[in-house]
Amino acid sequence: MKCSTKSTAPRLRGAVEVFLSLGGNVGDVTATMKRAEEEIRALPVHDLRFSRLYRTSPVSDIPQADYINCACQFYTDLPATELLEKLQEIERKLGKVPKPKNAPRPIDIDILFYGNEIIHTATLDIPHPQWQERLFVLVPLSDLVDIIGSIDIKKRIQELREKL
Q: Which CATH architecture has domain 16-163?
């Protein structure tokens, strides 16, 4: 499934470019991803684009089903902390409940990048830690962009695959 790429929100002055990673492995994850797209589209964002959906192996010692992952890109003028709160609301609305790290979940939405900002707080780390080490992040991200900062996404994917 390739999600639609147009947003109906008006252009925002002073907007920053944002990249998200979405994934889940509980329930009808394809339907959950579609609902997440609709919820994100309702936020004050423009130029919203989604990658294709990818089936990936879990990165966990906990036995569980494969994940469905995608990435999205948009522009917003929401502050990073407010965006995080709205994304957490979407996660709760779609059935996410507190669980141990790497446990199965219906949806997980992570902010990978918020413009060029570097943010490290108790609730938010941007850029997202280990994004460069996760094929389930890099492969969907490569549908949207070739280079992030100084990182060539496709080259990084190849490097990680060679380590497998």
A: 2-Layer Sandwich (3.30)
**How is residue 36 written in tokens?**
């997440």
pLDDT digits (tens, 9 = 90+) for 66-84: 999 999 999 999 999 999 9
- Whether 99 has a pLDDT exceeding 60, the answer reads yes
Does the pLDDT value for residue 119 go beyond 60?
yes
54's CB contacts (< 8 A; 6+ apart) are 68, 69, 70, 136, 139, 140
Output the pLDDT for position 151. Answer: 85
Alpha-carbon distance of 38 to 49, in angstroms, equals 12
Close Cβ partners of 87 (under 8 Å, ≥ 6 residues apart): 20, 40, 109, 111
Sketch the domain layout of the chain as residue ranges. 16-163
Which of 87, 1, 73, 13 has the alpha carbon at shortest distance from 43?
87
Alpha-carbon distances of 80 from 17, 41, 73, 88, 125, rounded to whole Å: 11, 17, 14, 12, 10
pTM of the model: 0.88
- How long a stretch of residues is the chain? 164
**Mean pLDDT, the chain, integer:** 88
Q: What angle do CA 163, 151, 140 make, to 5 degrees?
A: 70
